[in-house]
Design brief:
The complex is a heterodimer of chains A (415) and B (81). Helices cover 28% and strands 29% of the residues of chain A. Chain A is of the alpha/beta class and 415 residues long. The radius of gyration of chain A is 22 Å and the shape is globular. Chain B has a single domain, classed as Cytochrome Bc1 Complex, Chain D, domain 2 (Orthogonal Bundle). In chain B, α2 packs antiparallel against α4. Classes of the chains: A alpha/beta (415), B mainly alpha (81).
Chain lengths: 415, 81
């Protein structure tokens, strides 16, 4: 049995006794791309470590490529993954959510009332929607104007609305300011809806009401819209009155400072923050997201708790599945070193993110990141987007690359 | 043997050099890299980095690493199954 003392922020010390007869336990709360990856890599790096994953959903529904599900190009089954193989790998998967955390006693209590001790805790709670963060957008409103920003029933709801919309209809989408999950996601969604409408309901159009003047992969998206869907997508940026100030789900209207837009199908990509357990654990700040040490992903606010994935303030790294996966691995390495009494090693993180503007037209953004002055910073000279000047063959190959990436990463995390 | 020392032994074998763990986000079954020749992989990465070898995404990524880092990553992946 080993005993360590951690200095808490208040200057107090808390005794820590490792769990059980030698085996230390790391608990991970949240089984998405970040949390499930961390669980697997902890187990791989330290096979005698007790690794416990808390995840209330028996099936994970992946967001990447779910915009293809919306337009009928992909079945929902392709997005679904169970935890069977993770469990078979020796990880204890408890079908419950973390309900409360005691960072001094180093315990987590699940919503089933089970209390678990931990040596280190990794929170990977993803995002929560800030209901009424956009006036008028509450949970009932999401039944009329889907967000579909967590894949599953919302994806199916929006898919049905698009199918039921008559030709000549108007799809309106509200897009929030940064930061939010999947920065290019709204524009990929607009592209694929345009692809669907062009084939099935060609008199229809899309209006994108954006709280930003610039967005991820902007030139590539706008080039694709012009080439593939001329006249179908109207993007209204912040300076042109794109910021939505209120939605009225009964009347299906979006209000901006400049006027009111009526929608036949209304989509709201809502303002977001870290999943609720982050606030309950005290690891999120006033921004709603979680400040972390860029080497270990340990919370800046509560020692012993690490935060990865969309919930973390990971500097220049966007909130993507690839990034959550890379962070899960880097965090697992740091946690194993810390448990072994070794100094953490400065990581390099990579992100690669594919967007699909049509089933045979894709492009990407990549970045390489390192800790610098306390934040994960993009390495200059590396990364960037696919070239603007590229033949259609390259766009076709990048759409294929994206599909292969999805198969590879989901196999690494879940299969 | 103290646990710390034991974990240290495991770590020296298991933990990849900085950057290497990100590779398998793309390189699984579709473009395998585990167990490939270290010198070949180092040369490929260096060619991606310089642009001598055209690529869709690897050039952008390889530019984030220096020669020693690319060598360490290639060597580590060569030793994986």
């Amino acid at each position: 049995m080993i005993r360590r003392r951690y200095v808490l922020a208040a200057g107090l010390t808390a005794p820590f006794v490792a769990n059980g007869a030698g085996a230390e336990r790391v608990v991970i709360a949240g089984g998405g791309f970040g949390g499930a990856t961390a669980a697997r890599f902890l187990r791989r790096l330290a096979p005698d470590l007790n690794v416990t994953l808390l995840e209330p959903n028996p099936v994970f529904t992946a967001c990447p490529f779910s915009n293809l599900v919306l337009v009928g190009e992909r079945g929902m089954a392709a997005q679904r993954f169970t935890y069977d193989q993770i469990r078979a790998g020796g990880i204890t998967v408890i079908p419950a959510a973390a309900a409360s955390i005691d960072p001094r006693a180093r315990t987590v209590t699940t919503d089933n009332g089970e209390k678990l001790p931990w040596s280190r805790l990794i929170l990977a709670p993803g995002i929560d929607i800030i209901w009424n963060g956009l006036a008028g957008y509450d949970e009932p409103a999401a039944e009329k104007m889907p967000h579909a920003w967590k894949a599953g029933v919302q994806t199916e709801l929006l898919r049905k609305q698009l199918q039921d919309m008559p030709d000549g209809g108007v799809v309106v989408m509200s897009i929030p300011p940064n930061p939010y999950r999947c920065p290019p996601g709204p524009y990929e969604r607009a592209s694929l809806i345009a692809w669907y409408l062009k084939a099935k309901k060609p008199r229809s159009k899309l209006i994108l009401l954006d709280s930003k003047d610039v967005f991820s992969k902007q030139k590539l998206f706008q080039q694709a819209w012009k080439a593939l869907y001329p006249g179908m997508i109207e993007w209204v940026g912040l300076s042109d009155g794109g910021k939505v100030t209120r939605v009225e789900p009964e009347g299906m209207t979006f209000e901006t400072e400049f006027g009111t837009h009526h929608a036949d199908v209304g989509i709201v990509v809502p303002p977001q923050r870290a999943g609720a357990i982050a606030a309950r654990a005290g690891v999120s700040d006033r921004s709603g997201w979680c400040p972390i040490d860029p080497v270990t992903f340990e919370s800046r606010l509560v020692p012993g708790i690490h935060v990865i994935g969309d919930a973390a303030i990971a500097g220049a790294i966007p909130k993507s599945a690839f990034a959550a996966n890379a962070q899960g691995k880097a965090c697992a390495e740091a946690v194993v070193r810390l448990l072994g009494g070794e100094a953490p090693v400065e990581p390099r993180l990579i992100n690669t993110c594919y967007s699909i503007a049509a089933p045979d037209y894709g492009f990407s953004i990549a970045g390489v990141y390192r800790p610098l002055n306390g934040a994960l910073t993009e390495i200059e000279g590396a990364g960037g987007t696919s070239p603007i000047a590229a033949p259609l063959e390259v766009r076709r190959l990048e759409a294929e690359d994206g599909e292969k990436w999805f198969q590879t990463i989901t196999a690494e995390v879940f299969r | 043997m103290k646990r710390g020392a034991l974990l240290g032994v495991l770590l020296s074998m298991a933990v990849p050099p900085p950057g290497a763990s990100s590779c398998s986000g793309c390189h699984g079954t579709a473009f395998p890299i585990a167990g490939r020749d270290a010198a070949d992989m180092t040369r490929l990465l260096w060619e991606f980095r310089s642009g001598v070898r055209p690529s869709r995404v690897m050039g952008r990524i390889a530019k984030g690493f220096d020669e020693g880092e690319l060598n360490a990553i290639a060597t580590w992946w060569a030793g994986q199954k």
